[in-house]
Amino acid sequence: MKKLLLLTTLFTLYTHHSNTQWVQQTVPVSKPITGIKFINANTGWACTSWGTGMDTSYILYTSNGGINWLVQHAALNARYNALSVIDANNIYAGGDSSARAKFSKTINGGLNWVDIQTPVNMSIEDMVFQNKDSGWSCSGVVGPDVRTTTNGGLNWIVRTSGMAQQTHRLFFLNYNTGFCGANSFLYKTTNAGLNWILNSNFSESVASIFFMNQATGWLGLSGGKVALTSNGGANWFIQQPFPLNGNTTTDIYFINSNTGFAGTGWFQKILKTTNGGINWGYQIVPTGSVRISIVDSLNCWAADLGISHTTNGGGMITYVGINNISTEIPGSFKLHQNYPNPFNPVTNFKFEIPEYSFVNVTIYDILGRKVKTEVENYLRPGTYRINFYAANLPSGTYFYRLTTNNYTETKKMILIK
């Protein structure tokens, strides 16, 4: 019976992973994909870095959803780091080449690409255009370096008033309102970058930025966390996407206030949330997901060492660790008994917290030695469920403990193999 249960569990986990709906596409070059952007379900562009040595980088194009990718432009001794697509005609790519920024553009959908001379010692690490003329770029060089153009990249003007840190990431909600990640600092502008005001300071670097509107936004942080705001960044709620295991959240995009994706440095995985970023699960992506492009709830692309595509939102989501199963505020703190108990090798248990709290949930063996920390983070009020996997542990008695600033409770569970 135990063997049947174990086989059933393994089969469930296998089918859960193998039923992934992300399919790898064929690309004409073997280079890391550093930018990807689709304007609809068929039309998209991607750019590459130079791989293992300083050689040639490429801009790729597809008109059939990525079934076929074509090389539109090749840049010798250069690499691309960022891609900004305004419409079917106006596309921009930025990077660096021989101590000078690399900036390429097309105004006819890629039939012709033009390389534009840029200032010496300026690199382009991230770039965003609001229209065919107005755009911003930032450089990863020492010190702040944000520049703006009002003529399609022909000229760039430094806009770093109020900044003091190295700049890495940009996001503009509209022409006036934008955000810049500078190491662990987040800056905000309300006048198109003329002045920047410090919004927040985090313990990790700001690796990606996305705002749905003036109030609601998310940040991906280098320590494998996501920060959420509902008041324009006046306050941030730091949430640990538990599947991420400390890897950087490299790209973040929300379709609506509930459904979002996060690209990661986590091998072959992309994160997805359906409750506004409170809980994150993962989907298997053959090529990795350092960069992502989301057109709608069905059509999504992920890229790193190649490009993957889904036409159904990626299929099922695998949740690891903790899941928020109710946002109704409980009357008190409570730790529930695990079920099933005894178990082999999977069990789960719930806990309730009535107030915003720093929560620690840790598993101990019979001798009181720590086996695993399941939760160590601030959580909102609600009911949470933890799925505990003990395939690598020996049979025996274990304890799980819920600890907050105002409450501690411990319960016993038994693993039988």
Topology of helices and strands:
Blueprint: H1 2-18, E1 23-25, E2 33-38, E3 44-48, E4 56-62, E5 70-76, E6 79-85, E7 91-97, E8 100-106, E9 114-116, E10 126-129, E11 135-138, E12 146-149, E13 157-158, E14 169-172, E15 178-182, E16 185-189, E17 197-201, E18 206-211, E19 217-221, E20 226-229, E21 237-239, E22 249-254, E23 260-264, E24 269-273, E25 281-284, E26 291-294, E27 300-304, E28 306-310, E29 321-326, E30 334-335, E31 346-353, E32 357-365, E33 370-379, E34 382-389, E35 396-403, E36 408-415
Antiparallel strand pairs: 1-28, 2-3, 3-4, 4-5, 6-7, 7-8, 8-9, 10-11, 11-12, 12-13, 14-15, 15-16, 16-17, 18-19, 19-20, 20-21, 22-23, 23-24, 24-25, 26-27, 27-28, 29-34, 30-31, 31-34, 32-33, 32-35, 35-36
What shape does the CA trace take? Answer: globular
Average per-residue pLDDT, rounded, comes to 89
E-strand count: 36
Report, as a whole number of angstroms, the end-to-end distance: 11 Å
The gyration radius over C-alpha positions equals: 23 Å
Count of separate DSSP helical elements = 1
Query: Strand-residue fraction?
Result: over 45%
Quaternary state reads: single chain
